[in-house]
Design a protein that fits this description.
This protein is mainly alpha-helical and 159 residues long. It contains five helices and four strands, in the order αβββααααβ. The chain has two domains: 1-85, no CATH class; 87-149.
Amino acid sequence: MCLNRLWHANAILVFFASAIIGGCFEAFVAWFMQLAFGIIAWNYSSDWLPLFGGKTSGKYMVFWGLAGLIWLRELLPRLLKFINLIPWKWRYALTAVALVFMLIDIAFTLMAFDCWYGRIAGLPQTSPVTRFFGEYFNNTVMQQRFQTMSINPKWSGRG
């Protein structure tokens, strides 16, 4: 979405814009997860050109740049040919349904992280929501699902 205006731009500009946007987004997500939930999902401190305290790196920004370039120049035009075959009314409906599913997925993931954080921090788990997540997304499930993540309440920005 951020690259739409660069549709016809020079490939080098698309690459660098994709690298910067992707790297900044990756660093923001890492910062948010640590601040909100005490989660460190990745650490690129030992990679080439670590940035933002290892929340992203030059290596992964190169990958973001290549991914943006491939997406904008190769994949998106082909996808748009298919999308343009769908009538406008259906496009709006399908977009709305996809948006609702994505928002539900994001909300449930954030609630699962919050309940995981609460359990690790020793907070009471007495509400129906925390009991639901404790039953279906307990610590073992979360550790298996998010194997590369480390969680520690002391790392969060919560008091």
